[in-house]
Amino acid sequence: MNPRKHYFGSGPAALPQCVLEGMSEAILDYKGSGISLLSIPHRGPAFQAILDEAQELVLHLSGLSADEYAVLWMQGGGRHQFALLPMNFLKTSSAAGYIDSGHWAQAALKTAQHYGACQTLCSSSDNDYSSLPAWPPSLPEGLSYIHLTTNNTIYGTQMPELPLSPVPLFADMSSDIFSIKRAYSRCALFYAVAQKQLGAAGVTLVVARRTLLEQGNPSLPDVFSYAAQVRAGSVLNTPPVSAIYSCLLTLRWMQQQSMQTIEKQNREKAALVYAALDEQPLFHCPVAKDSRSLMNVVFKMNHAEQEQAFLNYCTSKNIEGIRGHRLLGGFRAALYNAVSLEDAAALANAIRQFNHKT
Ligand code: PMP
After folding, report:
1. Three-state DSSP class for residue 62
2. Could you say which of 257, 275, 305 is where a domain stops?
3. Which of 107, 127, 209, 282 is deepest in the core (most CB within 10 A)?
Protein backbone atom coordinates (compact mmCIF):
# COMPACT_ATOMS: atom_id res chain seq x y z
CA MET A 1 0.00 0.00 0.00
CA ASN A 2 1.21 3.54 -0.75
CA PRO A 3 2.00 5.75 2.25
CA ARG A 4 -0.89 7.98 3.32
CA LYS A 5 -0.76 11.31 1.50
CA HIS A 6 -1.15 14.76 2.98
CA TYR A 7 -4.50 15.21 1.27
CA PHE A 8 -6.18 18.61 0.93
CA GLY A 9 -9.04 17.83 -1.48
CA SER A 10 -12.10 20.00 -0.87
CA GLY A 11 -14.69 17.27 -1.22
CA PRO A 12 -14.74 14.33 -1.37
CA ALA A 13 -12.21 15.03 1.33
CA ALA A 14 -9.84 13.29 3.73
CA LEU A 15 -11.52 11.23 6.46
CA PRO A 16 -10.06 10.22 9.82
CA GLN A 17 -8.13 6.94 9.75
CA CYS A 18 -10.48 5.40 12.34
CA VAL A 19 -13.43 6.10 10.01
CA LEU A 20 -11.71 4.36 7.10
CA GLU A 21 -10.88 1.37 9.28
CA GLY A 22 -14.39 1.26 10.76
CA MET A 23 -15.90 1.32 7.27
CA SER A 24 -13.62 -1.46 6.00
CA GLU A 25 -14.54 -3.68 8.94
CA ALA A 26 -18.27 -2.95 8.68
CA ILE A 27 -18.35 -3.57 4.94
CA LEU A 28 -16.82 -6.98 5.42
CA ASP A 29 -18.95 -7.92 8.43
CA TYR A 30 -21.27 -5.52 10.25
CA LYS A 31 -20.65 -5.96 13.99
CA GLY A 32 -20.08 -9.70 13.75
CA SER A 33 -23.49 -10.28 12.16
CA GLY A 34 -22.05 -12.11 9.19
CA ILE A 35 -23.77 -9.51 6.96
CA SER A 36 -22.07 -6.59 5.25
CA LEU A 37 -22.99 -3.01 6.15
CA LEU A 38 -23.88 -2.69 2.46
CA SER A 39 -26.58 -5.32 2.88
CA ILE A 40 -28.23 -4.62 6.25
CA PRO A 41 -31.94 -3.73 5.90
CA HIS A 42 -32.72 -0.02 6.14
CA ARG A 43 -35.86 -0.68 8.19
CA GLY A 44 -34.24 -3.07 10.66
CA PRO A 45 -33.02 -2.47 14.23
CA ALA A 46 -29.32 -2.30 13.28
CA PHE A 47 -29.84 0.69 10.99
CA GLN A 48 -32.29 2.31 13.40
CA ALA A 49 -29.55 2.18 16.06
CA ILE A 50 -27.18 3.94 13.60
CA LEU A 51 -29.77 6.68 12.96
CA ASP A 52 -30.52 7.13 16.66
CA GLU A 53 -26.89 7.45 17.68
CA ALA A 54 -26.07 9.77 14.75
CA GLN A 55 -29.00 12.01 15.69
CA GLU A 56 -27.89 12.16 19.31
CA LEU A 57 -24.34 13.10 18.32
CA VAL A 58 -25.46 15.76 15.81
CA LEU A 59 -27.66 17.38 18.44
CA HIS A 60 -24.97 17.16 21.08
CA LEU A 61 -22.30 18.71 18.84
CA SER A 62 -24.67 21.52 17.88
CA GLY A 63 -25.96 22.10 21.42
CA LEU A 64 -29.60 21.52 20.41
CA SER A 65 -32.40 19.37 21.81
CA ALA A 66 -34.48 16.69 20.08
CA ASP A 67 -37.61 18.39 21.38
CA GLU A 68 -36.82 21.50 19.38
CA TYR A 69 -34.90 20.20 16.36
CA ALA A 70 -35.30 17.27 13.96
CA VAL A 71 -32.32 15.59 12.27
CA LEU A 72 -32.67 14.31 8.72
CA TRP A 73 -30.42 12.42 6.32
CA MET A 74 -31.31 13.20 2.73
CA GLN A 75 -30.05 12.48 -0.77
CA GLY A 76 -29.47 14.78 -3.73
CA GLY A 77 -26.60 16.83 -2.29
CA GLY A 78 -26.41 20.54 -1.66
CA ARG A 79 -28.19 21.40 -4.89
CA HIS A 80 -31.23 19.42 -3.77
CA GLN A 81 -31.43 21.57 -0.64
CA PHE A 82 -31.18 24.72 -2.78
CA ALA A 83 -34.50 23.65 -4.37
CA LEU A 84 -36.22 22.10 -1.34
CA LEU A 85 -35.85 25.21 0.82
CA PRO A 86 -37.97 27.49 -1.40
CA MET A 87 -40.34 24.64 -2.29
CA ASN A 88 -41.10 24.18 1.39
CA PHE A 89 -40.77 27.67 2.84
CA LEU A 90 -40.98 30.41 0.19
CA LYS A 91 -44.44 31.91 0.56
CA THR A 92 -46.25 33.38 -2.43
CA SER A 93 -46.90 36.56 -0.45
CA SER A 94 -43.29 37.36 0.45
CA ALA A 95 -39.75 37.16 -0.88
CA ALA A 96 -36.77 35.17 0.38
CA GLY A 97 -33.53 37.01 1.18
CA TYR A 98 -30.17 35.65 0.02
CA ILE A 99 -26.67 36.61 1.17
CA ASP A 100 -24.49 36.41 -1.92
CA SER A 101 -21.05 35.46 -0.64
CA GLY A 102 -19.84 33.29 -3.52
CA HIS A 103 -20.51 30.59 -6.05
CA TRP A 104 -22.65 28.23 -3.93
CA ALA A 105 -24.57 31.07 -2.29
CA GLN A 106 -25.42 32.33 -5.74
CA ALA A 107 -26.35 28.86 -6.96
CA ALA A 108 -28.77 28.58 -4.03
CA LEU A 109 -30.31 31.93 -5.00
CA LYS A 110 -30.62 31.04 -8.69
CA THR A 111 -32.35 27.77 -7.83
CA ALA A 112 -34.78 29.50 -5.45
CA GLN A 113 -35.75 31.97 -8.17
CA HIS A 114 -37.54 29.10 -9.93
CA TYR A 115 -40.05 29.05 -7.08
CA GLY A 116 -40.79 32.67 -6.25
CA ALA A 117 -39.48 36.12 -5.45
CA CYS A 118 -35.94 36.34 -4.07
CA GLN A 119 -33.83 39.31 -3.10
CA THR A 120 -30.08 39.58 -2.80
CA LEU A 121 -29.64 41.25 0.58
CA CYS A 122 -25.93 41.92 0.15
CA SER A 123 -23.17 40.71 -2.13
CA SER A 124 -19.39 40.76 -2.43
CA SER A 125 -19.42 40.01 -6.15
CA ASP A 126 -17.96 43.49 -6.77
CA ASN A 127 -14.68 42.44 -5.21
CA ASP A 128 -14.75 38.95 -6.75
CA TYR A 129 -15.89 37.52 -3.42
CA SER A 130 -12.48 38.17 -1.88
CA SER A 131 -14.20 39.24 1.35
CA LEU A 132 -17.53 38.58 3.03
CA PRO A 133 -20.35 40.98 2.18
CA ALA A 134 -21.33 43.38 4.98
CA TRP A 135 -24.60 42.38 6.65
CA PRO A 136 -27.35 44.72 5.39
CA PRO A 137 -28.05 47.64 7.78
CA SER A 138 -31.80 47.01 7.45
CA LEU A 139 -33.87 44.14 6.09
CA PRO A 140 -36.89 44.34 3.78
CA GLU A 141 -40.23 43.78 5.54
CA GLY A 142 -41.79 40.34 5.73
CA LEU A 143 -39.15 38.03 4.26
CA SER A 144 -40.06 34.31 4.22
CA TYR A 145 -36.50 33.44 5.29
CA ILE A 146 -32.84 34.39 4.90
CA HIS A 147 -30.34 32.00 3.32
CA LEU A 148 -26.58 32.21 3.83
CA THR A 149 -23.47 30.11 3.29
CA THR A 150 -21.21 30.00 6.35
CA ASN A 151 -18.08 28.93 4.47
CA ASN A 152 -17.44 29.68 0.83
CA THR A 153 -15.62 26.58 -0.34
CA ILE A 154 -14.42 28.05 -3.63
CA TYR A 155 -13.52 31.60 -2.60
CA GLY A 156 -12.04 30.72 0.80
CA THR A 157 -14.07 33.07 3.00
CA GLN A 158 -15.90 32.14 6.21
CA MET A 159 -18.39 33.81 8.52
CA PRO A 160 -16.94 33.84 12.02
CA GLU A 161 -20.42 34.07 13.60
CA LEU A 162 -24.02 33.41 12.72
CA PRO A 163 -26.15 36.56 12.69
CA LEU A 164 -29.25 37.00 14.81
CA SER A 165 -32.05 37.09 12.27
CA PRO A 166 -35.61 38.32 12.78
CA VAL A 167 -36.89 35.81 10.18
CA PRO A 168 -36.02 32.08 9.86
CA LEU A 169 -32.33 31.71 9.07
CA PHE A 170 -31.25 28.87 6.74
CA ALA A 171 -27.53 28.09 6.60
CA ASP A 172 -25.54 26.04 4.14
CA MET A 173 -22.75 24.74 6.38
CA SER A 174 -21.47 22.15 3.93
CA SER A 175 -17.81 23.01 4.28
CA ASP A 176 -17.51 24.10 7.89
CA ILE A 177 -20.07 22.27 9.99
CA PHE A 178 -18.67 21.28 13.41
CA SER A 179 -15.35 22.98 12.72
CA ILE A 180 -15.78 25.82 15.23
CA LYS A 181 -18.24 26.44 18.04
CA ARG A 182 -21.33 28.11 16.64
CA ALA A 183 -24.68 29.31 17.94
CA TYR A 184 -26.61 26.73 15.90
CA SER A 185 -29.84 27.70 17.64
CA ARG A 186 -29.81 30.93 15.61
CA CYS A 187 -30.70 28.79 12.58
CA ALA A 188 -34.19 27.59 11.81
CA LEU A 189 -32.54 25.07 9.51
CA PHE A 190 -28.96 24.19 8.61
CA TYR A 191 -27.57 21.61 6.24
CA ALA A 192 -24.27 20.11 5.16
CA VAL A 193 -23.34 17.71 2.40
CA ALA A 194 -21.40 14.79 3.86
CA GLN A 195 -18.42 14.71 1.55
CA LYS A 196 -16.42 17.49 3.21
CA GLN A 197 -16.60 17.29 7.00
CA LEU A 198 -18.81 14.32 7.73
CA GLY A 199 -18.23 11.22 5.66
CA ALA A 200 -18.75 9.61 2.27
CA ALA A 201 -20.61 11.44 -0.53
CA GLY A 202 -24.25 10.52 -1.09
CA VAL A 203 -25.98 11.99 1.91
CA THR A 204 -26.77 15.44 3.30
CA LEU A 205 -27.38 16.26 6.94
CA VAL A 206 -30.33 18.58 7.59
CA VAL A 207 -31.24 19.91 11.04
CA ALA A 208 -34.53 21.80 11.25
CA ARG A 209 -36.54 23.46 13.99
CA ARG A 210 -39.74 21.50 14.53
CA THR A 211 -41.91 24.61 14.63
CA LEU A 212 -40.54 25.59 11.20
CA LEU A 213 -41.50 22.21 9.73
CA GLU A 214 -45.10 22.78 10.76
CA GLN A 215 -45.15 25.90 8.58
CA GLY A 216 -43.88 24.18 5.40
CA ASN A 217 -45.89 23.88 2.19
CA PRO A 218 -48.41 21.05 2.94
CA SER A 219 -49.17 20.21 -0.68
CA LEU A 220 -45.76 18.86 -1.73
CA PRO A 221 -45.17 15.22 -2.62
CA ASP A 222 -43.58 13.47 0.37
CA VAL A 223 -40.22 13.12 -1.33
CA PHE A 224 -39.85 16.94 -1.48
CA SER A 225 -41.33 17.69 1.93
CA TYR A 226 -39.08 18.09 4.98
CA ALA A 227 -42.04 17.44 7.29
CA ALA A 228 -42.89 14.17 5.50
CA GLN A 229 -39.24 13.09 5.55
CA VAL A 230 -39.11 13.71 9.30
CA ARG A 231 -42.34 11.74 9.79
CA ALA A 232 -40.75 8.89 7.84
CA GLY A 233 -37.63 9.02 10.03
CA SER A 234 -35.20 9.47 7.09
CA VAL A 235 -36.32 6.15 5.56
CA LEU A 236 -39.03 7.36 3.21
CA ASN A 237 -37.03 5.76 0.44
CA THR A 238 -34.00 3.47 0.71
CA PRO A 239 -31.31 5.64 2.30
CA PRO A 240 -27.55 5.43 1.64
CA VAL A 241 -26.90 3.32 4.72
CA SER A 242 -23.13 3.12 4.29
CA ALA A 243 -22.73 6.89 3.75
CA ILE A 244 -24.78 7.56 6.90
CA TYR A 245 -22.69 5.04 8.83
CA SER A 246 -19.50 6.82 7.70
CA CYS A 247 -20.99 10.03 9.14
CA LEU A 248 -21.74 8.25 12.42
CA LEU A 249 -18.11 7.12 12.69
CA THR A 250 -16.89 10.68 12.02
CA LEU A 251 -19.36 12.12 14.53
CA ARG A 252 -18.10 9.69 17.17
CA TRP A 253 -14.54 10.78 16.43
CA MET A 254 -15.54 14.46 16.76
CA GLN A 255 -17.40 13.80 19.98
CA GLN A 256 -14.36 12.05 21.48
CA GLN A 257 -12.18 15.06 20.75
CA SER A 258 -14.71 17.77 21.79
CA MET A 259 -15.62 20.85 19.76
CA GLN A 260 -13.19 22.95 21.77
CA THR A 261 -10.19 20.81 20.79
CA ILE A 262 -11.35 20.62 17.17
CA GLU A 263 -11.69 24.40 16.93
CA LYS A 264 -8.29 24.99 18.56
CA GLN A 265 -6.61 22.62 16.15
CA ASN A 266 -8.41 24.13 13.15
CA ARG A 267 -7.19 27.59 14.16
CA GLU A 268 -3.62 26.31 14.53
CA LYS A 269 -3.66 24.60 11.14
CA ALA A 270 -4.98 27.67 9.33
CA ALA A 271 -2.52 29.95 11.14
CA LEU A 272 0.40 27.78 9.97
CA VAL A 273 -0.62 27.86 6.31
CA TYR A 274 -1.63 31.54 6.14
CA ALA A 275 1.59 32.58 7.92
CA ALA A 276 3.66 30.70 5.32
CA LEU A 277 1.69 32.35 2.48
CA ASP A 278 2.05 35.83 3.96
CA GLU A 279 5.80 35.37 4.39
CA GLN A 280 6.67 33.72 1.07
CA PRO A 281 7.14 36.36 -1.64
CA LEU A 282 6.30 33.92 -4.47
CA PHE A 283 2.72 33.41 -3.22
CA HIS A 284 -0.23 35.47 -2.17
CA CYS A 285 -3.65 34.85 -0.67
CA PRO A 286 -6.29 36.97 -2.47
CA VAL A 287 -8.72 36.85 0.47
CA ALA A 288 -9.11 39.82 2.87
CA LYS A 289 -7.55 38.92 6.22
CA ASP A 290 -10.72 39.36 8.26
CA SER A 291 -12.71 37.06 5.92
CA ARG A 292 -10.22 34.21 5.57
CA SER A 293 -11.62 30.73 5.95
CA LEU A 294 -10.16 28.27 8.44
CA MET A 295 -11.40 25.49 6.19
CA ASN A 296 -10.46 26.36 2.60
CA VAL A 297 -7.22 28.25 2.03
CA VAL A 298 -7.18 29.79 -1.43
CA PHE A 299 -3.83 30.99 -2.77
CA LYS A 300 -2.02 31.87 -5.94
CA MET A 301 1.51 32.35 -7.23
CA ASN A 302 2.50 35.81 -8.31
CA HIS A 303 3.71 34.26 -11.58
CA ALA A 304 1.08 31.76 -12.74
CA GLU A 305 3.63 29.98 -14.97
CA GLN A 306 5.34 28.66 -11.81
CA GLU A 307 2.23 26.88 -10.58
CA GLN A 308 2.92 23.55 -12.25
CA ALA A 309 6.43 23.49 -10.75
CA PHE A 310 4.89 24.03 -7.30
CA LEU A 311 2.37 21.23 -7.87
CA ASN A 312 5.22 18.91 -8.89
CA TYR A 313 7.20 19.95 -5.83
CA CYS A 314 4.19 19.18 -3.63
CA THR A 315 3.77 15.75 -5.24
CA SER A 316 7.41 15.01 -4.38
CA LYS A 317 6.52 15.86 -0.73
CA ASN A 318 3.45 13.55 -0.71
CA ILE A 319 1.07 16.53 -0.84
CA GLU A 320 -2.04 16.10 -3.02
CA GLY A 321 -5.39 17.72 -3.70
CA ILE A 322 -4.37 21.39 -3.75
CA ARG A 323 -5.24 22.33 -7.33
CA GLY A 324 -7.60 25.35 -7.27
CA HIS A 325 -11.23 25.25 -8.37
CA ARG A 326 -11.68 25.49 -12.13
CA LEU A 327 -13.37 28.90 -11.72
CA LEU A 328 -10.40 30.50 -9.97
CA GLY A 329 -7.29 28.53 -10.88
CA GLY A 330 -4.34 28.75 -8.49
CA PHE A 331 -4.52 26.56 -5.40
CA ARG A 332 -6.94 25.62 -2.68
CA ALA A 333 -6.18 23.55 0.38
CA ALA A 334 -9.03 22.18 2.47
CA LEU A 335 -8.13 22.04 6.16
CA TYR A 336 -11.25 20.20 7.30
CA ASN A 337 -11.30 18.51 10.70
CA ALA A 338 -9.74 15.28 9.42
CA VAL A 339 -6.68 17.13 8.07
CA SER A 340 -4.07 16.92 10.81
CA LEU A 341 -1.68 19.52 12.17
CA GLU A 342 1.14 17.50 10.59
CA ASP A 343 -0.59 17.73 7.19
CA ALA A 344 -0.95 21.49 7.55
CA ALA A 345 2.69 21.78 8.65
CA ALA A 346 3.79 19.78 5.60
CA LEU A 347 1.94 22.19 3.31
CA ALA A 348 3.24 25.26 5.16
CA ASN A 349 6.81 23.91 4.84
CA ALA A 350 6.35 23.22 1.13
CA ILE A 351 5.14 26.80 0.60
CA ARG A 352 8.08 28.20 2.58
CA GLN A 353 10.72 25.96 1.03
CA PHE A 354 9.62 26.06 -2.60
CA ASN A 355 12.26 27.62 -4.74
CA HIS A 356 11.10 28.18 -8.29
CA LYS A 357 14.67 27.89 -9.63
CA THR A 358 15.24 24.31 -8.46
N1 PMP B 1 -22.73 24.16 -0.85
C2 PMP B 1 -21.41 24.28 -0.65
C3 PMP B 1 -20.92 25.27 0.38
C4 PMP B 1 -20.51 23.52 -1.38
O5 PMP B 1 -19.20 23.66 -1.20
C6 PMP B 1 -21.01 22.59 -2.34
C7 PMP B 1 -20.14 21.67 -3.16
N8 PMP B 1 -18.84 21.82 -3.13
C9 PMP B 1 -22.39 22.52 -2.53
C10 PMP B 1 -23.22 23.31 -1.76
C11 PMP B 1 -22.99 21.61 -3.58
O12 PMP B 1 -23.04 20.31 -3.12
P13 PMP B 1 -23.42 19.10 -4.10
O14 PMP B 1 -22.27 18.90 -5.03
O15 PMP B 1 -23.61 17.96 -3.15
O16 PMP B 1 -24.68 19.50 -4.80
Report:
1. helix
2. 257
3. 209
Query: What CATH code is carried by the domain that includes residue 109?
Result: 3.40.640.10
Confidence (pLDDT) at 328: 87
Is residue 12 one of the residues assigned to a domain? no
Examine residue 47 and state whether it is found in any structural domain, yes or no: yes
Whether residue 354 has its Cβ less than 6 Å from ligand 1:
no
Q: Is the CB of 172 under 6 A from ligand 1?
A: yes
**The pTM is what?**
0.97
pLDDT tens for 324-337 read 988 888 999 999 99
HEC sequence for 238-297: CCCHHHHHHHHHHHHHHHHHCHHHHHHHHHHHHHHHHHHHHHCCCEECCCCHHHECCCEE
Closest residue to atom 12 of ligand 1, CA basis:
78
Q: Cα(105) to centroid of ligand 1, in Å?
A: 10
> Ligand 1 mean position to 28 CA, how many Å?
30
107 lies in some domain: yes
- What is the bridge-based pairing of β-strands 283-284 and 96-100? unpaired
Nearest ligand 1 atom to alpha carbon 149: 3
Does residue 282 share a domain with residue 330?
A: yes
Q: What is the pLDDT of residue 358?
A: 57
Spatial contact of 273 and 347, defined as CB atoms under 8 Å apart: yes
Q: How far is CA 289 from CA 69, 125, 297, 325, in A?
A: 35, 17, 11, 20
Question: Average model confidence (pLDDT) for the chain?
Answer: 96
In a domain, 340, yes or no: yes
| Mean pLDDT (10-residue bins), the chain, 358 residues | 88 97 98 97 97 98 98 98 98 96 98 97 97 94 96 97 96 98 98 98 98 96 97 96 98 97 98 96 96 98 94 96 91 98 98 81
Number of domains in the chain: 2
For residue range 333-353, list pLDDT tens digits in order.
999 999 999 999 999 999 999
Last residue of a domain, one of 257, 274, 303: 257
Q: Which residues contact 60 (CB under 8 A, 6 or more apart)?
A: 255
Centre of ligand 1 from the C-alpha of residue 336, in Å: 15
| CB-CB contact of 198 with 205 (8 Å) | yes
**Whose Cα sits closest to atom 11 in ligand 1?**
78
Distance 192 CA to ligand 1 centre (A): 8
- Structural domain boundaries, residue 293: 258-357
